[in-house]
Amino acid sequence: MKIRIRGNSIRYRLTKSEVETFCATGRYEESTNFGNSVFTYVLEAKEATAVLDAEFKDNTITLFMSKEMSVGWYASNEIGFRHTSVRADNSELSLLVEKDFVCMDETIEDQSDNYPNPKA
Questions:
Q1: CA distances (Å), 109 to each of 13, 31, 47, 54, 112, in order?
Q2: By the 8 A CB rule, do 11 and 65 touch?
Q3: What 3-state class would DSSP assign to 25?
Q4: How many folded domains does the chain comprise?
Q5: 105 is a domain residue
Q6: CA-based angle 9:15:21, to the nearest 5?
Q7: Which of 39, 53, 56, 76 is most buried, with most CB under 10 Å away?
Q8: E-strand spans in 1-108?
Q9: Is residue 43 part of a domain?
């Protein structure tokens, strides 16, 4: 799972096997070890939410997706889900979860588990 953070936006991109695991278990997580602390990012299916939501607690970003949205996502043509959440301080947090496609340009990254690019 890849994460991209820019300003008040967070985007997760998941490969085929990561989406399959998430849909089967309701959770997928990755961590980066900095030596003195670990940063974790999680995608979690949640019953009590109708839209994407997120929290940051204990060095972990957890992005919540409704269970209804996650059911069947693996086998569907649905690329992803987006929501802009208004926070308690009236700031906006843009959230996006999507399937990771094969890049059109040259890259050294292993893309064997990515979805075929629909623009190819």
A1: 14, 18, 35, 28, 9
A2: no
A3: helix
A4: 1
A5: no
A6: 100
A7: 53
A8: 2-6, 9-14, 27-33, 38-46, 53-57, 60-66, 80-86, 92-99
A9: yes
